[in-house]
What we know:
Helix content is about 30%, strand content about 20%. The protein is α/β, with parallel strands linked by helices. The mean pLDDT is about 95.
Amino acid sequence: xxxxxxxxxxxxxxxxxxxxxxxxxPDRVEDFQLLDGVAExxxxxxxxxxxxxxxxxxxxxxxxxxxxxxxxxxxxKMNGLLPLDDVxxxxxxxxxxxxxxxxxxxxxxxxxxxxxxxxxxxxLVGDRRGDIRAGQRVGCRCFFIDRxxxxxGPEPPFEPVAxxxxxxxxxxxxxxxxxxxxx
Length: 183
């Protein structure tokens, strides 16, 4: 079985727009910009043999605030810039309580089935509580990028990182786990 690095999109791969302490996706493909170090991190992870799979909630499609065509255009741009293997999208608003929307594990389980993944040997990088919870539910090692949104952070276990490049370095060069380490 293969391992994957699951990547949230907004705030992990590209700039998220923060308004009143809350994270929002870019409105237009022109606003979709990679964060520093993302291309380098993805290249390193890919060269090491990891599958790179984006798992992203995009509820603005479900509520009509954004079109699927605009999201698809952003994903074409993202796929042109990064060596991604797959992209899974949930367009349901939170009130729908669907199985695919993070913090539920549906997208990760679907990716595992499609790609024959070892979830316990895989990783998840996210910037919100729901990202981390989805990874924890399937047994991934989770990395949390704290963007200081005005919302509760995740519950342990997770490893705090400054960004995707630091997460990639830890994935590729794991430090030994010492007694008392909360991981």
